[in-house]
Amino acid sequence: MGGTSPAAAREATHAIDIPAGSLESALARFSEQTGVSIGVAGALPRLVTRRVAGRMSADAALRRLLKGSGLRARRAGATYRIERAPRSAPPPPAPIAEPPLSPLTAPDIIVTSKKRPELLATVPMSISVIPLAPFGEGPATPSSRDITLGAEGLAETNLGPGRNRQFIRGVADSPFIGKSQSTVAVQIDDTRATFDAPNPDMHLIDVERVEILKGPQGPLYGSGALGGIYHIVTRRPDLDHASATLRLSGEGVQHGGVAGSVEAVANMPLADGRLAVRAVGYRIVRAGWIDNEDGRTDSNSTRVAGIRLGLRWRPADDWTVDLGVAQQDIDARDTQYVLSGNDALIRPNRIAEPTDNDFGMAHATIEGRLGGLRLVSATSIVGQGFDTVLDASAASASFGLKGAARFSDRRTYSLFNQELRLSPFDGGRWLVGLSVLGARSKGDATITDEAGASRIVDTINRRTVEYAVFGEASWPLLGRLDATLGARIFRTVSRDMAAEPEGERIRLRTKTLVSPSASLSLPLANDGIVYLRYARAKRPGGLAVSDGEGVGTYDADRINTIDLGVRKATADGRLALSGSGYFTWWDRVQSDYLLPNGLISTRNAGSARIIGIEAALDWRLGGGLSVSAGGAVQHSRLLRGADGEALDNRRLPVAPALTGRVEVAQAIGIAGWRGEAAVQANYIGSARLSFDSDLDRQMGNYAVVAARLTVSRGPWTVGATLDNALDLAGDSFAFGNPFSIREGPQYTPLRPRTLMLSIARRW
Questions:
Q1: Three-state secondary structure call for residue 11
Q2: What is the C-alpha to C-alpha distance for residues 15 and 57, in angstroms, rounded to an integer?
């Protein structure tokens, strides 16, 4: 088509107003508003661009649209041609460089946890985004604990790797791993990784970012997402560039042992621009620091091994197929609690308490264009095996056994999920979808005494199928004000089976549920937003072992949250603030709890209320210096019991009432090496183990300091981290063994001072 010449376009200015959306849509609007023609070299990448508005030249508008995309606009006759920007040679080392933008000060960051690409600056809800450096560019692969220390509102138990439960914004029902669904759903890309299984604690190697959606997410994710979503976004295969990275690490724990790890990532295009494969592999040994009086030293060491393979195929310019498999095994030699105080690292256990968590998944995601629509088909299969052994000697008599007793709990979880989603191809403001989810949980627990006598003391055998239709849409309301409505209508069919003395008991329950959400949002200058959101989510009920020999039931619970928040950055992006306040009411709280014999059952505990405030700040001061800080205060209480009777000061478990963090980072340059040095301090306020009066034990109320240093030159990166730098004692979790917890206090001491050194090589 005809249009203004590029030379004239550079000189003329135009009234530009291009909303956030797909790159394709943005370029079309650019041509409409400037009269300048655009050509494309090859397939146009599927990118989401930020809003560009104001009076400017065509050159300036294109630079803003393509900023950070890896593309450039090049003059080609009477048109501009969009092509991939050449990879420039690395700049000469400088003594000081600006650190990368944080999530708050980088408004161009794209999030996908709402099941379509959106600019973070436009999302009308509370969300934390933790971007992770490309593998090999940091000193170590972050752990789930590191993510917890960097995000307001996220809490985690400390039973040990592969055994922990996560909670968001105080929506915490119990520290015990029972039969109820977790209040936080773990999502890996388009794969629902958990339903009622423990957090698999996937090693965060080659992960692009972690997105934490706060508040009920029933409309998009269905049952179980009461507190929010923990979304892991992996790096996909690169269709154009081959690369490989290897990192070797070693660590030493004060008062404990030494260990090491090897991690590798490789990417290989198989057909230029069309087909590529990406592989991740790792074997990690984490040193222990708990000794046993029988001579077992550093007994709580852990071994983690895993692989992840991904294949990306682009059969046509507007279609992408992603296939992948992952397998991870976590083997812990022993638990990590002590009995004589949080500063003691020795205990008298007669029986080792190992844990094995094996996690595997396979997924296929097909995404492409149907006319003006984007179709996504996401299919995934997940399997998880969870085995744990505990010393049950303290409860032998409760089961008619004598002497030392060993409790063995073996469970298997499987999860199938199929979703179909439609949304406008240009990003748009709506989404609709269909979902079928099938979950199976099976296992049994046995207790064996020293004479070899054993008995089955608990079983789990549950099938759940959930059929759902869901959607979300936004539209302008009263000028600049936007409204968003979402809903999920789902039908759940659950089948519980349990053994009783008179025979097997089966409970079949079919229920149709609705989870709505609604929000109002007002955009602010410099990519800010003010929002008010309401959302609701539910969990189904089931069967549970009762106080006697029989089986009891527990009902579905429901949570509602109102959230008022703001995100705002300065025009130069150097200072950004975010904050929110929330009010949650929770009916018929499902809670896993301890029976007198030490087994874990599930019940409806009553009604709860949570009120909280959180805030975060990112400030780039210049000269390579940056500061990040945040904090949260919350008041979470179980107000009434299941019988409706008012309760006195029953705090919900695990989640601390007060948290705070601050990190100071400085970009450095030394003798041709460039990198960053940083120090981070966290305060974890007091929390309680349980709202049951006989288990209402305090934990938390400690501070930790960590430091890290990373320097790179050419293909080499050397890193060092120092965790718990002051070697402070503190009780990170007041629970270890359910069979002996009533006999006396239990403590989970902080991991002592730990030094890790690493070296990485990139090709």
A1: helix
A2: 9
Contacts of 131 by beta carbon, 8 Å cutoff, 6+ apart: 102, 103, 109, 208, 209
Q: Which sign does the torsion angle of CA 113, 117, 120, 122 carry?
A: negative
Q: Where are the beta strands (DSSP E) in 20-165?
A: 21-22, 37-40, 48-49, 52-57, 71-76, 79-84, 110-111, 118-119, 127-131, 154-156
Query: Residues 63, 64, 67, CA angle at the centre, nearest 5°?
Result: 80
Distance CA 585, CA 583 (A): 7
Q: CA 279 to CA 266: how far, in whole Å?
A: 5
Alpha carbon dihedral 155, 657, 687, 183, in 10-degree steps, equals -40
- Assess contact for 199 and 165: CB atoms under 8 A: yes
Q: Tell me the two tokens of residue 82.
A: 């969009």
Nearest to 279 by CA among 224, 324, 332, 342: 324
Under a CB-based contact definition with an 8 Å cutoff, are residues 34 and 59 in contact?
Answer: no
Question: Phi/psi at 195 (nearest 5 deg)?
Answer: -125, -65
Distance CA 671, CA 665 (A): 20
Distance (Å, whole) CA 52 – CA 62: 9
Query: How confident is the model at residue 256, as a pLDDT?
Result: 92
Given a contact cutoff of 8 angstroms between Cβ atoms, the answer to whether 287 and 281 are in contact is no
What would the two tokens of residue 682 be?
């966290």
Query: What's the pLDDT score for residue 88?
Result: 47
C-beta of residue 661 within 8 angstroms of C-beta of residue 146: no
Give the closest residue to 630 by CA, choosing from 80, 102, 3: 102
DSSP 137-168: SSSSPPPHHHHHHTSTTEEE--S-TTS--EEE
Residues 6+ apart with CB under 8 A from 409: 386, 387, 388, 389, 390, 443, 445, 458
Q: Which two tokens stand for residue 164?
A: 């922990």
Residue 425 has what pLDDT? 84
Pick from 677, 697, 675: nearest CA to 743: 697
For residues 753 and 512, give the distance between their C-alpha atoms in angstroms, rounded to a whole number. 51
Token readout for 511 is: 């229920």
Is the distance from CB of 110 to CB of 689 less than 8 angstroms? no
- At 616 the pLDDT is 96
User: What's the order of all strands across the beta sheet hosting 184-188?
Assistant: 127-131, 207-214, 228-234, 184-188, 191-192
With residues binned 3-state (H G I as helix, E B as strand, rest as coil), the percentages for the chain, rounded to 5, are 5, 60, 35
- pLDDT number for residue 34: 78
Give the torsion sign (CA, 245, 250, 253, 257): positive
Q: Are 257 and 289 in contact (CB under 8 A)?
A: yes
Neighbours of 417 (CB within 10 A): 22
Question: Within the chain, which residues score under 50 in pLDDT?
Answer: 1-10, 88-99, 101, 104-107, 548
Give ∠ CA 79-372-43 in degrees, rounded to 5. 45
CB within 8 Å of 136: residues ≥ 6 apart: 245, 246, 247, 265, 717, 760, 761, 762
Which residue type sits at 320? Answer: T
**Beta carbons within 8 Å of 502's beta carbon, 6+ residues apart:** none
Other beta carbons less than 10 A from residue 407's beta carbon? 25
DSSP state of 731: B
Which residue's entry shows tokens 């490789």?
266
